[in-house]
Request: fold
Amino acid sequence: MMTLNLTTLTAFGTVAVFLALGGCSVTPLEVKMSPAKPGFTNIVLSDDLSSTTPTTNFSKGPAKLFVTFGLKDVPIGDKIKGSWVCEESKEAPPNYEIDSATIVIGPGLNTGNFSLSKPTKGWPEGNYRVDLYWNDKVAESVQFKIGA
Reply:
């Protein structure tokens, strides 16, 4: 598929005017625009739902972790999923999925969040990530650390 920028359109317009003045006929050029690609924007991982500053290191203390995000060019009916994963810890096997949740996109939805509460025994020290899926494919991953 050909992508046209403003310079290309101006060049086509100049050629069309030149040919029209010379008595030639011009066949209209069909321009197909690529649909906008849906995706996540402004991803923030924090222990405060209203925070706009991402955090990547947490002590053992947060009562809850949040990942908030914006959505762009969202087709209604698409699904997004947040999957909380412990990549490496003494308390869990490698790449252990702690929890996940899925949202089906409805009209007017342009932001969202997923959260994970502190385990009963506290957060195990280790490396973690949140995978954000778009229709069953990982679209974004946010890595973070808990503990020293």
Remarks:
- The chain has one helix and eight strands.
- The longest strand covers residues 79-89.
